[in-house]
Specification:
about 15% helix
């Protein structure tokens, strides 16, 4: 009897866990985006100002068949989209001790309690000696024309270009 009860509890708990399904890149971010600015935060970064400035003005492209930043491209990318709360974001991106990194939705310009997060799986990339991240591989959707992402602890804002298929 205890085994059936335990099994019922386990099945019930599994049903409560939100399901995250791998898929192609969501349509709402398809298009071309330009990295416009660095966002000031209280993060400890593995990049200096010079490396961060090199991202400004670069393009990120998303479609069902492609994820591209500059000349680094992933064909047929797999993405995971989920909603992240302000608390989850803070906990996942901030340290626990005094003097640790600390970042909030408010610091990066998101003024709601939650946002859509899209994470794109890709082979390791050699963008810099400090990281294998590709700019734009893990983004928060701020609004229809603005995404936010970080590389090496530095947060950036990118804007959709007018030639993006989603806006035409």
């Amino acid at each position: 009897m205890l085994t059936k009860w335990s099994l019922s509890i386990c099945i019930g708990l599994i049903c409560l866990v939100p399901v995250v399904i791998a898929q192609s890149i969501p349509k709402d971010i398809w298009g071309t985006w330009v990295v416009r600015r660095e966002l000031p935060t209280n993060m400890i970064s593995c990049w200096g100002d010079e490396q961060a400035r090199k991202l400004l003005g670069t393009e990120i492209e998303y479609s069902s068949e492609l994820f591209r930043w500059k000349d680094v491209a992933t064909k047929n990318p797999i993405a995971v989209a989920r909603v992240i709360t302000a608390r989850q974001f803070h906990d996942e991106n901030s340290g626990q001790g005094a003097g640790s990194s600390d970042v909030t939705f408010k610091q990066i310009g998101i003024h709601t309690g939650q946002a859509k997060r899209v994470t794109i799986r890709h082979p390791e990339a050699n963008i810099s000696a400090s990281t294998d991240e590709i700019p734009g591989d893990d983004v928060l959707v701020k609004d229809q024309n603005t995404i936010i992402f970080s590389v090496c602890g530095v947060f950036f804002e990118a804007k959709r270009t007018s030639r993006s298929p989603h806006t035409q």
